[in-house]
Design a protein that fits this description.
Layout lengths: L8 E6 L2 E11 L2 E11 L28 E5 L3 E3 L7 H17 L4 H21 L4
Antiparallel strand pairs: 1-2, 1-5, 2-3, 3-4
C-alpha cells in the first residue's frame, strides 16, 4: 500500500465519478476518502454495460455527497495538491459539463442519460436547494 496518511488530499475515482477528498482511514487494498469536491460527475446507465440502453436497469447516478465517506480501491486514489473548490459549485459545474457533453451527442445512450439526469437534477435541487 502506498504511503497516504490520514488527512492527505487526494483525487479518487468512484464508479464513473472523480472527486477530491481527504484520506480518513486505511483498509486492506484501499482507503476511506471523505468527499470534498466533484471533478467529474458520474455517468448514467449500467456500469457493466457502458453506453448501452438495452439493459435491465438504466441507473440514475448521483455524485457522492459533501463529506460522504467512501471506500476507494488503492489504485483509484492519487495524490492531489491543488485548490479544493466549494463542493456545491463543483457539483454544479460537473453536472453542467456532463449535461452539455450529452446534449452534443445524438446517440440513444446520450438521450437516455439526459432523461436520467433530469431525475438527478430534481433530487439535487431538493437536497441542496441549488439551481442547476
Amino acid at each position: 500500500m502506498s504511503e497516504f496518511t490520514i488527512g492527505t488530499k487526494v483525487t479518487a475515482f468512484y464508479k464513473t465519478g472523480k472527486y477530491i477528498g481527504e484520506i480518513t482511514g486505511t483498509r486492506p487494498d484501499g482507503y476511506v476518502v471523505r468527499i470534498l469536491s466533484v471533478l467529474k460527475h458520474p455517468r448514467q446507465g449500467d456500469l457493466h454495460n457502458p453506453n448501452q440502453t438495452d439493459v435491465p436497469l438504466f441507473h440514475e447516478r448521483k455524485a457522492l455527497s459533501f463529506r460522504e465517506q467512501a471506500n476507494i480501491p488503492e489504485k483509484m486514489v492519487k495524490s492531489y495538491d491543488g485548490e479544493v473548490d466549494d463542493y456545491y459549485e463543483s457539483l454544479r459545474k460537473s453536472f453542467q459539463d456532463l449535461q452539455q457533453d450529452l446534449s452534443n451527442d445524438t446517440s440513444e445512450f446520450a438521450q437516455k442519460s439526459l432523461e436520467a439526469l433530469t431525475g438527478v437534477k430534481r433530487e439535487y435541487e431538493l437536497m441542496y436547494n441549488i439551481n442547476l
